[in-house]
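User: We ran a pulldown and think these components assemble together. Before we commit to crystallization trials, I'd like a predicted model of the whole complex to look at. Sequences follow.
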Amino acid sequence: MTGQQDMNDRDLLDFPGAGRLRAAGKVAPPSADAVAAALAAVRSAAAGRPAGDGQAVELELEREPVAAVVPVRTWRRRLPVLVSAAAVVAIALGVAFQPWSDSGDVQRSPAADRTAVQEQTGPAPYWKVQTLQWMRSSDETQRRDGAYKTVWLSRSGTREQPANGLVQDYSREDTGGMAYVICGKPVMWDDLKKLPTDPAALRARLVGKATGEEVAEDLYNGMEELLSQSPAEPQLRAALFKVLTGIPGARVTERVKDSTGRSGTAVDLDADTWRLRLIIDTGTFHVLESVDTARNDGLSWGPQKLRAGDLIQRTTYLSVGPAWEAPRPSPRT
Amino acid sequence: MATDEELLARSGTDASAFEPLVERHSRALHGYFARRAPGAADDLLAEAWLRAYAGRGTYDAARGPVRAWLFGVARNVLAAHWRGQERPAAAAALAGEASSDPWNAVDRRLDAAAVAPLMRRTLAELPAVERELLLLIAWEQLSPTEAAAVVGVPAGTARSRLHRARTRLRAALGPSAPLSLTGDLA
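Assistant: Here's a predicted model for the assembly, 519 residues in total across the polymer chains.
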């Protein structure tokens, strides 16, 4: 693992309160007596038992029971490689993608009225993403209705603004700016234009020759991040979608509705005890919705025991697109 | 200076080669125990080294570095410790996890360190594996790949779960967090 990779991995601890959490882990070093006692125990064991006679040490896996997978209809036709002309023009012009605008049979998002189409041209410094997110809480009275949030991503990092208007800045100058971590490797904001748009070359660039379970969930997560949170060009989005659907174990189902009634193509992946689903508009290759559910009965969630299919989290993408301005971070209270 | 892997390999025929490992890693392993079973850290440290020595022939470099393997041994020792403790049934039911989960002890540490109740509640709501991965990185300074080896999940799965845990923590602890909470989130 490279230093930069480590750095980006540890950026996972950049949520509010992470510093206090780290500090809470400070403990005094062991006494000299404690170390001496451990060393004496080892010496005693070495004197009494030859190597290899000891008790085997196996890591104990604490996994939830795995139930049979209900098959979803598999993908049968070639995925469209060419992106729709409308999508190319829209994104090239810097028009915000509003996933519900192309669908005649959709339920209009409650946030739609608040979102203005942006028509400025040229490379925008921000990529703005508006979501409605529902997360399971162990307290069922909490966050029942979901929460709206707007995120501005840029070269330097991200700013997040929930419905109450306060803005949290996650920019990290010390990490070299915004990085999408794909299978542990950083893809920087400016790398997006350099990524190959041939799916095989793109996959090779992102994960090398890695295959199988080791990479499946990580790659799925990375494709979700790039498709939902990055200003990737249309051709790159098409390639990302091909990489996503080519992940071992991924299942594709057409004409699936998201929670707001929009139609898209679902890409499912079973990940240990979870079932991950992305619903994607295959005209523009933008993510409409990300849904995590319990794969089996019995998954623990705090004091709750979930049943197969119970919702763990759902993020509905209400609008995405370039932005030329972002709000300033709110002062800390 | 010999690497951990070299020392462990050599210890198969030369037991004294194991001793530098004890000197190198006791502080980290003791810290792991002190955070999760503060009253028993010294005993658990000795037990972990005994088990590591006895099982040194089972180390597989393909599953991660020696450091991660040692934390895996420590994790098993800790789990056995907690399984052996009598816990009030109500507390076990409230935790909703295997009885080997050290969360109650960890939560007491967070409380003593004045970590905001909202942070503690959010951590408590994370699936046990996500929480464990997060704490191995935050407290034991392990990389996600090393933490994955300790917990026994693929590295990709660990990174994915950590990503989701971060999303949950940001959502819960971001600027929309209730202003009435006590404790410092910084």
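Chain B has ten helices and no strands. That may be worth checking against your pulldown data before setting up trials.

User: Thanks, that helps.
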